[in-house]
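Module 6 notes. Inverse folding takes a fixed backbone as the condition and produces residue identities as the prediction. Think of it as a translation problem where the source language is geometry and the target language is the twenty amino acids. Below is one complete input and output pair. Work through it position by position during the lab.
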């Protein structure tokens, strides 16, 4: 694989193809324009998170194709999520996200910086008065590894961020362990749906592959987990 290769979002991807797969009914999908209009409503808080990913052609355990490396983190509350966080009221969404990425994972903003064009999807949770913005940061595999190595020096590491991980994007021979088992972990907010959406939007996995992983995570949980 060309080490300079990066994922690109599919401009023709329609999120409706995943509607039946997404599990969180408390978060309503909204357009970016609609989500930004809610900034004038002081009762809503805004948060932004980032899907950092890179192509990967190395087999896991010498036999499982992982398709990509996708970065997630273990949060202070014991839940899994994406790097990012609360946007201050006076901040621009993208500027606030880049600030959070610098604080949480020590992202070098002189090399990597999320831009407005990297927006993937936004959701609103009317019950909790939260607007959640999701962006992508496709990098090369070498850049991904460099980002991982710098995270231990982040300001918030050991406080807000307790660890990092790569999502297992394969299914092991028993049909459950790997991605299906991972989907049964505890995610914060709608991070699980953000993961599924990012994988489809950036064409890392097809909706069919995601549907199969979700089905296996639900039907094999009690029989295969150990």
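Target side of the pair, the amino acids:
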């Amino acid at each position: 694989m060309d080490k300079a290769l990066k994922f690109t979002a599919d401009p023709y991807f329609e999120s409706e193809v995943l509607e039946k797969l997404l599990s969180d009914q408390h978060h309503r999908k909204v357009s970016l324009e609609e989500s930004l209009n809610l900034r004038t409503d002081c009762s809503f808080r805004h948060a932004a998170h980032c899907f950092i990913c890179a192509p990967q052609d190395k087999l896991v355990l010498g036999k499982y194709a992982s398709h990509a490396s996708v970065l997630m983190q273990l949060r202070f509350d014991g839940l899994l999520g994406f790097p990012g966080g609360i946007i201050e009221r006076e901040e621009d969404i993208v500027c606030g996200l880049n600030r959070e990425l610098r604080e949480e994972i020590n992202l070098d903003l002189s090399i990597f910086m999320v831009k407005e064009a990297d927006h993937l999807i936004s959701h609103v949770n009317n019950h909790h008065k939260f607007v959640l913005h999701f962006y992508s940061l496709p990098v090369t595999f070498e850049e991904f590894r460099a980002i991982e190595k710098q995270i231990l020096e982040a300001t918030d590491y050991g406080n807000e961020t307790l660890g990092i991980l790569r999502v297992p994007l394969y299914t092991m021979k028993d049909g459950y362990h790997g991605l299906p088992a991972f989907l049964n972990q505890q995610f914060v907010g709608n991070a699980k749906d953000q993961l599924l959406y990012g994988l489809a939007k950036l064409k890392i996995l097809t909706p069919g592959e995601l549907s199969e992983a979700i089905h296996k995570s639900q039907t094999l949980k009690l029989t295969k987990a150990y």
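Reference fact for the lab report: The mean pLDDT is 88.
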